[in-house]
Amino acid sequence: MKYKQTPFSKLLLLFLILSVPITLQFCKSSQTAQRIYEDKRAEPKISYSESILPIMKVKCTPCHFPDRGMKKMLNTYEATRKNIEDILYRVQLPVNHKDYMPFKSKREPLTEAEINLIKNWVAQGMLE
Questions:
Q1: Cα torsion at 107, 111, 115, 120 (round to 10°)?
Q2: CA 106 from centroid of its chain's CA atoms
Q3: CA atoms in the 13 A half-sphere facing the CB of 38
Q4: Is a pLDDT exceeding 70 seen at residue 93?
Q5: Residue 2 pLDDT > 80, yes or no?
Q6: What is the pLDDT of residues 9-25, one digit of tens each?
Q7: pTM (global) more than 0.70
Q8: Cβ–Cβ contacts within 10 Å for residue 60, how many?
Q9: CA distance linking residue 91 with residue 110, whole number of Å
Q10: CA-CA distance, 47 to 59, in Å (whole number)?
């Protein structure tokens, strides 16, 4: 016995093919899986208070922090945000350059990881 396709059977097949993706779109487990996938792809947000300020405190004191600081203060979000281009420029200069920071190597230089963290903070919009 040979099966003969009718217009109705073609329509039914088309309906089944189209209904599966539409049904999955509204399925909670499918939505949850998609959210988890997107969350894993997203970069963690970098904030000034949690990530940048600790670097500034360790690498820029005492010169740029209150009490003993006698240079431009960099102890606040606003001050760091306004001077970020200069900060990044100076910490990446050769150590023997006259404008290199930390000045005369009074502190350990920023590591590549710290510099990249600051660059990523800038790229993400400098969250407070």
A1: -140
A2: 30
A3: 6
A4: yes
A5: no
A6: 777 777 767 776 776 66
A7: no
A8: 24
A9: 7
A10: 18
User: Other CB atoms closer than 10 Å to residue 107's CB: what's the count?
Assistant: 15
Q: Where are the domains of the chain?
A: 7-41, 48-123
The structure tokens listed for 24 are 């999955």
Q: Write b or e for each residue in 14-23: b if 16 or more Cβ atoms lie within 10 A of its Cβ, otherwise e.
A: eeeeeeeeee
Count Cα neighbours of 66 within 13 Å in the Cβ-side half-sphere. 3
Residue with tokens 């922090």: 65
Count of C-beta atoms within a 10 Å radius of residue 3: 6
DSSP 103: G
- Over residues 25-53, the pLDDT tens digits come to 666 665 666 666 665 566 689 999 999 99
Q: For 111, list phi and psi in degrees, rounded to 5.
A: -80, 165
- Is residue 7 over pLDDT 80? no
Least confident range from 35-44, 69-78, 79-88: namely 35-44
Structure tokens at 41: 């792809």
